[in-house]
Amino acid sequence: MLSAYSFAMSLIPKETVDQIIAQADIVEVVGDFVSLKKKGQNMWACCPFHHEKSPSFSVSPAKGIYKCFGCGKAGNSVQFIMDVEGSSFPEALKYLAKKYGIEVPEEETHEYSQEQSDRDSLFIVSEFANKHFQHNLYNHEEGNIGQSYLKQRGISSATIKKFELGYSVEAWSDLTDAALKDGYQQKYLEATGLTIVKEDKRYDRFRARVMFPIHNVSGRVVGFGARTLKSNDKKSPKYLNSPESEIYHKSNVLYGLFQAKQPMRMQDMCYLVEGYLDVISLHQGGIENVVASSGTSLTEGQIKLIARYTHNVTVLYDGDAAGIKASLRGIDLILEQGLNVQVVTFPEGEDPDSYIQKVGDTAFKAYVKEHAQDFISYKSSLFAEEAKGNPVKKAEAIREIVTTISKIPDSIKRSVFFQSTSLIFDIDEQVLISEYNKMHLQERQQQQKAGNQEAYTPQTIVPEPEKEVPELEVTKRYEREIVRMILHYPDQELEDGITTSQYMLEQLDDIEFVTPLYIQIIDFVKERLNSGVLPTANDFITFPKEEIRTESISLLAEPYELSPNWETHQVFVPRETDLLPYGAERAVIRLKRRNAELLLKQESEKLRLVTDPQEVDRVLKLIMNLSSYYKQLGDLLGIVVNR
User: Is the pLDDT reported for residue 45 higher than 50?
Assistant: First the structure.
């Protein structure tokens, strides 16, 4: 079985792979998925791979790498696409090639069709369907029906093309037949939900519908939403969506995010609506930072997607009181994730799509700006109005609002909302705080109770995995420092034209490493030097073996930087590069001393077992020599430290 790297190289010429990696800007690539902020020489963000409230995800523009100091994810531009998209190495390369306009000549070999992942095949067949539906809209005789509907809804040709809208004809197996004819496999059509197979019959899921392709963050089609144009068909739903699949999870997708992510970042705001046409109409009207939950209840996964680009959300509600009440729980989830939420409601009977078509772009934007209010105040006013004159309902409403406020992680924001809520309900602020404290205490008690019950639940005892031997762990730490310095400064000269990598390998010529991963790295460095080529950090960032790439990037990433304020206040702190000869020497001596220490222990243990007098003398002399050597190294370290 080929490694992912070798497999990609067998499909895509090496010079093309090198060109893609060289041209892919790590800040641009990562910036398509998360909102980065500059801090020192690096860029920082909350990690897209695990939930966190304080940024620990670092991107180094100079080194072309990313590293999360929370969950440990690390890599270059290609690895990031693989991690965030769950794509294969070849697919990540092709994604970057498309982004940077690099042509990828590849050979669709039999080996490729054998090795290509099922996941990639689902993306490919979904894209075929997307192009097929677009072709139908413009070239099939039934496509006029779809074009007429979209024109009636005020959607321009440019917007239709931008959102890649299409049409599925009324025939039972139009798409399925076309896909099979072009060589696509039925199992992938089934897996994406495009084709339904019952007994010996197969037919298209989508027929006689306007098609709304659903893209993931990187722009790949993962599913479809489809609207029927048959007003007299009461058996089938008005909107029909793709079923869940390996590439389409409704709870982790927002319609329009691919088109909205850059505007969301630039304007630091996300408008959240419900339907496909809401997104499309607002986007056409100049409000491009808009996404939809596509009719599903808002999920934690969708909120985390928004949080990659902005922490400010404005929910645009239809003018339907029942719909508003049903959506309030979803907004509690937004607050729980630490985002700021505003609400805008439209006149009864209107939704964002109908209202912008009715009043126009300028008036719509003015309305949103004028009517936006923070969610807590909105919800408090809504509940207070409903509970007016009814003490029991008022008490229930207050508890509901306190529950919502309790979701907010920021204590200062909670305090501000307690003040505003006390004014709306005409109730003492301290009563609200007391109710919050009571809720908080009950929640903690329930968690503790659940924890105790779990502790007494009989469980199968699984033996813990053996921990790494402490002795080897200490040695690994010293070896790690040697490798770290070689990776950071492989071609930097120390003195007399000798580079860091050359100096360290010469000094450690008689030392054998014990950590398998570091042995491979050192062997690669030796191989490069013996061939007359100085290794570079990029050699390790793009190394074929994933474990070496990951470890190298972890060693190259730096969690801390010197504050520029030191220089501002004329406090000059030496950097590692300023004392590189000193650091390299110290790292070598420490590893040598560590190895001498281990040999001393080994020989001392042997002495206890030896009975032959001559062997005893030999071991004793060796121990004395090792002790002397160990002390000399210690003295050298002392001289270096105090120099």
Answer: yes
Contacts 24+ apart (CB under 8 A), 366-374: 368/271, 368/314, 368/316, 368/344, 371/344, 371/345, 372/314, 372/342, 372/343, 372/344, 373/342, 373/343, 373/344, 374/340, 374/341, 374/342, 374/343
Residue 575 CB burial class (10 angstroms; 0-12, 13-18, ≥19):
exposed
For 425-449, write each residue's pLDDT tens digit: 888 989 888 888 888 888 777 777 7
Has residue 629 got a pLDDT over 80?
Answer: yes
For residues 131 and 603, give the distance between their C-alpha atoms in angstroms, rounded to a whole number.
73
Tokens in use for 32?
Answer: 């398509």
Tell me how far apart the alpha carbons of residues 150 and 148 are, in angstroms, rounded to a whole number: 6
Q: What span, in angstroms and rounded, lies between the C-alpha atoms of 254 and 216?
A: 8
Map residue 290 onto helix, strand or coil.
strand
Question: For the purposes of burial, counting CB atoms within 10 Å of the CB of 79, is it exposed (0-12), middle (13-18) or buried (19 or more)?
Answer: buried
- pLDDT at 321 (0 to 100): 60
pLDDT digits (tens, 9 = 90+) for 497-543: 788 888 888 888 878 888 888 888 888 888 888 888 888 888 888 88
> For residues 595 and 375, what is the distance between their CA atoms, to the nearest angstrom?
64
Residue 421 belongs to what H/E stretch? helix 411-425
Q: How many CB atoms lie within 10 A of CB 602?
A: 12
